[in-house]
């Protein structure tokens, strides 16, 4: 009869072999994924930064009314001017924009020509969900006066709105702040800050200034060492004019996990330390009236990685680790807010939202992502403060 001790030893050896085999498999996949990443990096051709101003104002002014971003329920009716303009901005969906129309009852279905109808449907769905969120927040803002079929006003000009004090939003970050991936022919400045300011302006009906302080290719340590002086200068300028910075949006992490674990300075723990140090430094300058906003990065939707296994799931996991550090910081530090990924954002992986490099959004992609960030800021920060009398 076999000794129990011998049987346990055999079981341990079998388990040990399985663990070693698993470790070898994981190590092999990691090497393959790293090789794929290095190859993509060697083939990468940098895109230019956005042209135009690095600061501006979205003002609640009397402009030409623009309809909300959804199409009529009647299939015979043409798309609204706003959606038509948005769709026209995406080359991949231009044909569908001319032919397709959405079923407004659900906001997610399009009927039109074959080929691009599915991508146009995704655009309509994302825009309709944004429209629904804005409509709910407009009601929460408590504005009694509403012009019939007013929709959204284009926020331009320099006059204060009916809602009161100006909101000042500062953006600090990497190439996503400098506008890499936008149409090089455009000269309006970075699209992400403009989109966030625009949605805040529309919902609160106040002027919203935006300032973009960015450095392409910067990781979190570089943001702290190179860009903090510009943040200090901007905060001082607002204070001299009798105002303060309400929101600082920090876009970071892309250039950190891109070089993950290639050195001791590129680990999750080092990112955690550098991020918390940078956030503390900003808070020391802006004071308690300001909220630091840390958005998750939509790397999991970047089409450059689509279908590349095991690189895509590896990068998705790495990006989630870095974003988790942002969320943990927001949970433990007062005055810090984390912006999660949008729900049901599968269609955001379509190339129509991305630049030619497949890693940076294009104008349309920046606008949709910016409106998502703006809605989160309104829901989690600005509207609670307004309702609380802050």
Brief sketch in words of this structure:
With 390 residues, the chain is an alpha/beta fold. It is built from 11 helices and 10 strands.
Key traits:
390 residues, 6-stranded mixed sheet, Rossmann fold, two-stranded antiparallel ribbon, single chain, alpha/beta, 2 domains
Topology:
Layout: H1 4-43, E1 55-58, E2 65-66, H2 81-89, H3 94-99, E3 101-103, E4 109-111, H4 117-140, E5 152-153, E6 167-173, H5 175-178, H6 191-204, E7 208-214, H7 220-240, E8 247-251, H8 254-257, H9 268-286, E9 291-295, H10 311-332, E10 336-339, H11 363-387
Parallel strand pairs: 6-7, 6-8, 8-9, 9-10
Antiparallel strand pairs: 1-7, 2-5, 3-4
Pfam families: Lipase_GDSL_2
InterPro entries: SGNH_hydro, SGNH_hydro_sf
Organism: Haptolina ericina
């Amino acid at each position: 009869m076999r000794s129990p001790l011998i049987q346990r030893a055999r079981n341990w050896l079998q388990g040990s072999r399985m663990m070693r085999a698993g470790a070898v498999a994981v190590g092999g996949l990691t090497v393959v994924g790293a090789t794929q990443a290095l190859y993509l990096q060697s083939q990468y051709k940098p895109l230019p930064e956005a042209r135009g101003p690095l600061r501006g104002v979205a003002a609640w002014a009397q402009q030409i009314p623009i309809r909300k971003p959804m199409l009529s329920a009647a299939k015979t009716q043409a798309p609204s001017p706003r959606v038509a303009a948005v769709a026209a901005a995406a080359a991949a969906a231009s044909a569908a924009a001319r032919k397709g129309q959405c079923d407004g009852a659900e906001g997610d279905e399009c009927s039109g020509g074959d080929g691009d109808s599915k991508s146009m449907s995704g655009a309509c769905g994302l825009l309709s969900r944004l429209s629904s969120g804005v409509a709910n927040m407009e009601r929460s803002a408590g504005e009694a006066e509403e012009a019939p079929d007013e929709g959204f006003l284009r926020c331009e000009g320099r006059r204060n709105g009916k809602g009161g004090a100006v909101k000042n939003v500062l953006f600090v970050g990497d190439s996503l702040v400098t506008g890499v991936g936008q149409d090089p022919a455009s000269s309006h400045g970075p699209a992400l800050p403009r989109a966030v300011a625009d949605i805040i302006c529309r919902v609160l009906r106040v002027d919203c200034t935006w300032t973009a302080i960015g450095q392409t290719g910067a990781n979190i340590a570089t943001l702290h060492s190179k860009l903090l002086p510009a943040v200090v200068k901007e905060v001082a300028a607002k204070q001299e004019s009798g105002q303060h910075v309400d929101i600082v949006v920090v876009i970071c992490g892309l250039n950190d996990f891109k070089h993950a674990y290639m050195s001791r300075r590129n680990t999750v723990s080092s990112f955690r330390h550098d991020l918390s140090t940078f956030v503390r430094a900003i808070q020391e300058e802006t004071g308690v009236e300001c909220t630091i906003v840390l958005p998750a990065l939509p790397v999991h939707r970047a089409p450059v990685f689509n279908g590349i296994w095991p690189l895509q799931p590896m990068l998705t996991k790495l990006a989630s680790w870095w974003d988790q550090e942002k969320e943990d910081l927001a949970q433990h530090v007062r005055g810090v807010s984390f912006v999660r990924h949008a729900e049901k954002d599968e269609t955001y992986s379509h190339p129509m939202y991305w630049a030619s490099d497949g890693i940076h959004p294009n104008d349309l992609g920046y606008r949709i992502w910016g409106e998502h960030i703006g809605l989160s800021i309104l829901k989690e920060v600005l509207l609670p403060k307004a309702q609380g009398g802050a």
